[in-house]
Specification:
- With 116 residues, this protein is an all-alpha fold.
- The protein has a single domain, classed as TerB-like (Orthogonal Bundle), CATH 1.10.3680.
- Helices cover 68% and strands 0% of the residues.
- The chain is built from six helices and no strands.
- The protein starts with 6 loop residues before the first helix and ends with a helix.
């Protein structure tokens, strides 16, 4: 069982998965994630452990992991924060000028979990 994440960490997991589900992590997506991190963590934070968790996930576990962190984020956030995050997530999946079916599927899943 995964340990509940706070909103900022959960958001990081959601964005990392959204940027990876198309099988391609673009530099533009990396820049959007850096932007998110600098907004959420004004102080330096070591995310090596989080990145390792994400990197070692099997593709068949991505959806469960994504859903888990969507629920963590939901528990710690306001509706406005969720709406804002969804807009940011949309800008992330559009960053490389191509939205794949899988990216759209995960984006829609997030909106459905949050009832947006």
């Amino acid at each position: 069982m995964l340990q509940k994440s706070n909103k900022s960490i959960a958001g990081y997991h959601l964005l990392m998965l959204l940027s990876s589900v198309d099988g391609h992590f673009s530099p533009e997506e990396g820049m959007k994630i850096t932007e998110y991190l600098s907004d959420e963590f004004p102080f330096h934070i070591n995310l090596d452990n989080e990145l390792e968790v994400i990197a070692t996930l099997q593709q068949e576990d991505w959806k469960d992991h994504f859903e888990f962190h969507a629920h963590c984020f939901h528990e710690d956030s306001t509706e406005d924060e969720r709406k804002s995050f969804v807009q940011f997530a949309k800008s992330l999946i559009k960053a490389d000028n191509e939205v794949t079916e899988r990216e759209h599927l995960y984006y829609t899943l997030l909106k459905n979990i949050w009832k947006l």
